[in-house]
Specification:
heterodimer, A: seven-stranded mixed sheet, 13 helices, 35% helix, B: alpha/beta, Rossmann fold, four-stranded antiparallel sheet
């Protein structure tokens, strides 16, 4: 019955300080209705050659975190505090020039919808080459050759002719491949993929995820994969962070988080997903209610209005005291339940449902 | 090669429905959309073969799932069933009456019995109407005067779908995505339909909310005995919801079977590929791994013979010349029909690795030569 897995080290930790290290990141937007605390005290690390999967519902702050890393937020209305350290360089408060040099070169991004992320006015080859020319000063000819090389690498058939095509001439899967080619053209060390496969069909999604995985093995890129699908994370990520209301509620290796989750929200996510092998006669067990507004985050644990396991905590700590993620490293969760309680609840109540 | 023994279809074009009389029967239904070109004088230069001859039955109170990739014609099928579109060929019979080319007038009484739930809860509700007006409109249009008045009935419906009856006077923008989808469900229920066509009803919702809506639909199906045609691309959700599942590819049904048979003993290579591509939240997942090359071909000019052959790893000459019929293969239970000349062995056991994608194959061959990976190479 117990299939709790042993903690497993993430592959290839490069030793020393992490490649990307985010500490106590806070992102706030001022809006007409009040201040939106999109990210509220988030810390995580990503090592070279590994993938961190960030999972959460819409509005949990996963995309905002990554826009803050890339410096793509609107500086007029956004307040960012904390620290984002990329290979020894501090990005919070860094001048625009510095970020421009890093973007596309050291860190790059794959967006969710390739049709809106690509310019309809320029050819695919030109869009891929533009990044390359900007950062390396290469000639048009060199950039074109590089574009063809990248298109070959991501598996576009007949790259020599396709390089002169416009985005509308590509299918959805090919556009996403072109996006990947564009983001990898300067061999970045950090790749942020924001829901890279949500707009794609399952068979194409599987191709793209495998492609990212294989490219990572070849190039040693660190990847942050943002998704709402735990299945995608299970396939591609080494480490997982579950976000809720702008905070990390659970983090650990893929095996730890998916096989022995500790946070009630992670339990809810897992038991609301039907599986291909599970029993079909039991109804799914969704998380009650709806995600909270980030303008008016519930006091104490932000998950407390939707939590079914509050009675396990003595007193009213859930509604008054915000739980910190503990332990500070390794597999941890932000919940007031004791480690033993979490383990018992998961084994007795949650695991049987997962089938 | 595989067993070529195929049993001929026992009873006409439709498989035996396990539960009751067929409520809805599609026979050879086609929908071709014309492609026009030319300046001043438009002429037809081709046709999008969106749905190209499908046979499907839905029994009373039965939930039938329809899965496939985008562009395979599953949504068009849903629109044909509700007669929002007129088929270019074939028959749609509802309770024994052919409604394929029925006029507006003839359709009037049937419209109220076949309802639809749309994919996007944001664009399928009129933002200028209150929830009460939205849910009450179908009753007003059809001249139905429920006992106690329309408002009372709407409030009952709101309660049925898990919303607060006091929300009667609110506007759609005051609700979240999941709640809006519940409003859409309440509207579909207002005429007490016999068949609901649910076109991707949960794909626009967050994971935790998806489960809430799926549970609601399942509850309604059980309690009210409504038949469902559940259209989705998520195989796990379709499996959870439907008793019978049809897999579509480029306008054709390539495999249809009851739930257990389709998911545990799939025969069509495409079904295998689809199932192997579903990401499961289990790091120890060791199902077979099949990676097709490229995307679905254009339905304007579909491949000859078997339409899947351009992406199939078992395709031979026969597949290009001869279109495989949708028949019951030997070793399959009754009602499990497959359209394939060279079907796969039943089962989705792990260990097998079919990689057709050129980029993946190239990189994995290279990697395989340097670092011995635990991943199995292609058979």
């Amino acid at each position: 019955m117990t299939t709790l897995a042993k903690p497993e080290e993430a592959p290839a930790p490069s030793g020393g300080a992490s490649f990307l290290s985010v500490r106590d990141l806070q992102v706030r937007f001022s809006t007409e209705d009040g201040v939106v605390r999109a990210v509220d005290g988030l810390s995580f690390d990503v090592e070279r050659g590994t993938t961190l999967g960030i999972v959460g519902e819409s509005g949990s702050g996963k995309s905002v975190t990554n826009l803050a890393i890339l410096g793509l937020h609107n500086p007029e209305s956004t307040e960012i505090t904390g620290s984002i350290n990329l290979a020894g360089q501090e990005l919070v408060g860094a001048p625009r020039r510095t970020l421009e040099k890093l973007r596309g070169n050291t860190m790059s991004m794959i967006f969710q919808d390739p049709l809106t992320a690509l310019s309809p006015y320029h050819t695919i080859g030109r869009q891929i080459g533009e990044t390359f020319r900007k950062h390396t000063g290469a000639s048009k000819k060199e950039a074109r050759d590089r574009s063809i090389e990248m298109l070959t690498k991501v598996g576009i058939p007949q790259p020599q002719t396709r390089v002169d095509d416009y985005p509308h001439q590509f299918s959805g899967g090919m556009r996403q491949r072109a996006m990947i080619a564009m983001s990898l053209v300067c061999d970045p060390d950090l790749l942020i993929a924001d829901e890279p496969t949500t707009a794609l069909d399952v068979t194409v999604q599987a191709q793209i995820l495998d492609l990212l995985k294989d490219l990572q093995q070849e190039l040693g890129t660190a990847i942050i994969l943002i998704t709402h699908d735990l299945g995608v994370v299970a396939k591609t990520a080494h480490n997982v962070m579950v976000m809720y209301a702008g905070r990390a509620v659970e983090r650990g290796t893929v095996r730890e988080v998916l096989k022995a989750p500790q946070h009630p929200y992670a339990w809810g996510l897992l038991s609301s997903m039907p599986s291909l092998a599970g029993s079909v006669d039991v109804p799914l067990r969704p998380v009650r209610g709806t995600p909270p507004s980030l303008i008016n985050v519930p006091a104490g644990c932000p998950f407390n209005p939707r939590c079914d396991f509050k009675e396990g905590v003595l007193g009213d700590r859930c509604t008054t005291e915000r739980p910190e993620i503990s332990p500070a490293t390794g597999h941890g969760s932000a919940c007031h339940l004791s480690v033993g309680q979490k383990q018992d609840i998961f084994i007795d109540q949650i695991q049987p449902r997962l089938g | 090669m595989n067993d070529q023994l195929t049993l001929s279809k026992a009873d006409g074009p439709s498989p035996a429905t396990p539960s009751g009389e067929p409520l809805l029967q599609l026979t050879g239904v086609q929908k071709h959309f014309p492609v026009m070109d030319g300046f001043l004088f438009k002429r037809q230069v081709g046709a999008v073969h969106a749905v190209d001859g499908i046979d499907l039955t839905v029994g009373t109170g039965e939930a039938v799932g329809l899965v496939g990739e985008s562009g395979c014609g599953k949504s068009t099928t849903g629109r044909l069933v509700t007669r929002l579109l007129e088929p270019t060929g074939g028959q749609i019979s509802y309770q024994g009456r052919d409604i394929a080319h029925a006029s507006r007038k003839e359709l009037m009484p049937i419209r109220s019995e076949i309802q639809m739930i749309f994919q996007d809860p944001y664009s399928s509700l009129n933002p200028r109407q209150t929830v009460g007006a939205i849910i009450g409109a179908p009753m007003e249009i059809n001249g139905i005067k429920p006992a106690g008045g329309i408002q009372k009935r709407v409030q009952e419906l709101l309660e049925t779908v898990g919303l607060n009856p006091e929300h009667y006077n609110r506007f759609p923008h005051e609700f979240s995505g999941g709640q809006r989808q519940r409003i859409g469900v309440a509207r579909a229920l207002s005429l007490e339909p016999k068949l609901i066509v649910a076109d991707e009803p949960v794909s626009a919702l967050d994971v935790s909310i998806q489960a809430q809506v799926v549970n609601l639909l399942q509850q309604l199906q059980k309690d009210l005995g409504i038949a469902f045609l559940f259209i989705a691309h998520d195989l796990a959700i379709v499996r959870h919801f439907s008793q019978r599942v049809a897999v579509m590819y480029l306008g054709k049904i390539v495999e249809i079977a009851d739930r257990a048979s389709l998911y545990e003993r799939p025969r069509h290579p495409y079904t295998h590929a689809l199932l192997s591509a579903v990401p499961e939240a289990d790091p120890d997942d060791n199902r077979e791994r099949i990676r097709l090359a490229g995307d679905v071909p254009s339905p304007i000019n579909p491949p000859s013979g078997c339409r899947f052959r351009t992406r199939c790893w078992k395709a031979q000459e026969k597949c290009a010349t001869e279109e495989p019929p949708l028949v019951q293969l030997s070793g399959n239970v009754a009602g499990h029909l497959t359209a394939c000349h060279f079907p796969e062995e039943p089962g989705v056991a792990g260990g097998r690795d079919v990689v057709l994608d050129p980029a993946l194959a190239a990189m994995e061959d290279e990697a395989g030569a340097v670092i011995p990976e635990p991943r199995d190479q292609q058979d």
